[in-house]
């Protein structure tokens, strides 16, 4: 007598994708911002990495575009509980931008045009985990989604992927950013539901 009955197919596979706890799938791209959308002229745009010793590394818009670009396809997860899968971007890896930067820092504070800030461990910006992106789904990154350029750190909640980014300050000690000061989690791992301090 057989162990498996004829026609047995095992458990049906779920057609639902794997999402972090408490998230729902969306097809649109909701726009959420802490303030008005800054309008940044490409002639005046620059990205500056400042080390803990005060050394500055600067790129103009044309210099940034001339760097090697990558085209990551990633899932993104917002702290307001929506997730969007298989999003397509184009931009420069933070590994490229930080390759010649000498630092002993463990933390980064990201600064945006408009005054927004967010903090991350420096290691979360390295090893192919983060990009400075300027295109979304094959076109220029719309201003409402952070254009001309935003940070993309898809393994953390999306508030860590700062819009309208203008620079990164490297630091020896952690310093909370805008939402972190207001009670959001310092790290923000969606798979651990780190939405607020204490989660």
From TrEMBL:
Domain of life: Bacteria
Domain Oxidoreductase molybdopterin-binding stretches: 35-179
Pfam families: Oxidored_molyb (PF00174)
Stretches for region Disordered: 1-22
Record-linked InterPro entries: OxRdtase_Mopterin-bd_dom, OxRdtase_Mopterin-bd_sf
Official protein name in the record: DMSO/TMAO reductase YedYZ molybdopterin-dependent catalytic subunit
